[in-house]
């Protein structure tokens, strides 16, 4: 196991000194190839092959759609509608933030992007209404994790790319678990708001006001209908539905709301190139690292160990939950998918565990990882919005982590929640 | 509007082409029932180029994912060393990618003459994009490393 120690040692050491995760995992992988003589030509071949896959092209397109809709002011419209709808309850604004983030999750496939779009709108108004700023930042960060559970989702695209499970089916599998987690977040938000006496918003939403806000937001509401509807009906692949949604957002932003100008479109394009490259930087080098892992027999050895300690399928699943939960503190979702998941995947057949269900469950665990510091991408975004350091904001995150873990256990024990929609849509047969 | 950098212009152009090509393909498939298989080949290869350029811009903006918790507690001198190590390694891995990519390009031009599956054009045309656009990656790693070390040593926190 000295090879494993060496490779993981380099990877972890570089992360500790603050190197980008892509650099750290790339250096460890390239070092492994050179030291163990695994064929250096594969460095460039796999760098290119790791990116040039058609299903992965859905990533920049979904990111671009989210950017265009956010810059087109649709996040504001949808948040206004949802706030009028649920804002009167105790902690109304915080609950509206949770629901809006869940809804935005059906437009965007990225946690940090959702945290930025929703946080900009809700955090200032929550602070104005007397909410603790660190609580506001934590609510938004936690709820933004729903973006990778509720389709579209970058995590599902990458999991499908690794395992060959249909990405469209994975998307549908995430819908119900996403709503379950959203439910748990609403409960804890309500409980905390009651305890701290966070009031709801004053203005009452009359039927007419709700109807007007709905009419204003209808174009935003239609976006996920188009994305999910076209996949559910089986007429478009995720990449196709992503590109359709890009042009839908352009149409809405330019012609309906007239809020997208040249500057907004150019900023969205550049922003998308960066956001998608940040993901792909890790994807492609982590892919190389995982090949090195498997060529050196590290994956087999670790897999055998996992089988030897898990006495039953449910014990295995709980072990996976635990490992992903712990890994989520220190790593981002993409590197976990490439570095750790290959250990578990070969074991699935032995335990008769469905790979789609497994992907959904793992993604819920990865979403929790997005809010557990020190590596907590969503919390990082919202901490910057309130201009406080991460460790100060993170004091308010733990109730959300605890409730998300309960949700994760529910999803682990009831695979039906993940499998119901994919099977009903005939996109998936277990 | 601010003046755009060359790599930003390239990112805009490449991403736009990808979106337009794929959108036309979707339309033609559903409306005219004609599908251009070649579009997939072009899109995925443009995606490789876009990724390399995007990685470069992200280095300049400091947008890459990472962990600062331990780094923030380092004394200044250790921070400077860490920034330099991180920069040098980033250059090293891209240099390795480019070195073997260029080798592939040369072999394809002189010996193998491999052609792409869908469009039947020489494969090296796609491959060569990675080393070419990596120039932006090298440039931005060097510029941002120097900038970060400088601000560190002149008193600012990274």
Summarize the helix and strand pattern of chain B as letters: HHHHH
Q: What is the terminal-to-terminal distance of chain A?
A: 36 Å
Helix fraction bin of chain A = over 70%
The major sheet of chain B is characterized as: none
The total of helices of chain B stands at 5
As an assembly, this protein is heterodimer
Percent of residues in β-strands of chain A: under 5%
Most extensive interface between two protein chains, with residue counts: A-B, 62 and 58 residues
Q: Total helix count of chain A?
A: 22
Report the C-alpha radius of gyration of chain A, rounded: 21 Å
Largest sheet data of chain A: none
Low-pLDDT segments of chain B: none
**Helix percentage of chain B:** over 70%
- Helix and strand content put the structural class of chain B at mainly alpha
Span between N and C termini of chain B?
A: 27 Å
Query: Hey, roughly how much beta strand do the residues of chain B contain?
Result: under 5%
The run of helices and strands of chain A is HHHHHHHHHHHHHHHHHHHHHH
Total beta strand runs of chain A: 0
- The gyration radius over C-alpha positions of chain B equals 20 Å
Decide which structural class fits the backbone of chain A: mainly alpha
Round the mean pLDDT of chain A to the nearest integer and report it. Answer: 93
